């Protein structure tokens, strides 16, 4: 008998909740070590922004231990507790703060930091889906000062601004020539909305599930970008594009260089408000290299 997704989620949610509690209790009650480095992030190969937001892809000094932050609810992963307990943690990047699906994990890391675990937040940011938080979010749902080092991608909330480390990817060193005026990049979930997809039927359009090279090439060969994807916004700004954002989360509202904020109904018209911002790629790379030096000193590597 086929179980529809809603019913399946009802059946699996208690098991996932129990698994998370078991993992947290196991970690909190276990001796903690800082032998090597575990790089914790959302390892979603179908979301280039999430996948390439970890510094493990850019600094060989960070080793090769990688942990998917979603593994906390995976009962099949027996290695998780060992990887977390034995190693210092680099957490991020991505929108891991003020988001229900990551709250449990981030609170666990906060507790471990209080027990002597060496912990680094690298390029994480807030990601609240509550529209009341758009433009108004004033604090994180964890105490970032409890971590050994904390560099966050949100400009006004950060004591140390560290934009997403994906700026270091060599794909941004390539030269691109514009072949279209406007490119649309929508989150893969947005594309399931037939009304929104139909509204852009006359424009070149991709989803954020493209591989990194295709994703960035599409941005590079467009003069303007309209998107509801954080990394499409970020990478568009890095590549000197005019960017208009249709926000679905608080994450769009505190980048240092604000894009034009719009709606699906008005975004084409609002392109005339967008401007090119020069020098952002170099600035973001420099911020990450300087932060990397602090991390290496802190972790003694």
UniProtKB/TrEMBL annotation:
Alphabetic keyword roster = Transferase
A Pfam family found in this protein is PS_pyruv_trans
MF annotations from Gene Ontology: transferase activity
Q: Which InterPro entries match?
A: Polysacch_pyruvyl_Trfase
Top-rank taxon = Bacteria
Q: Where is the Polysaccharide pyruvyl transferase domain?
A: 54-250
Kindly provide the name given to this protein in its UniProt entry.
Polysaccharide pyruvyl transferase family protein
Species name: Antarcticibacterium flavum
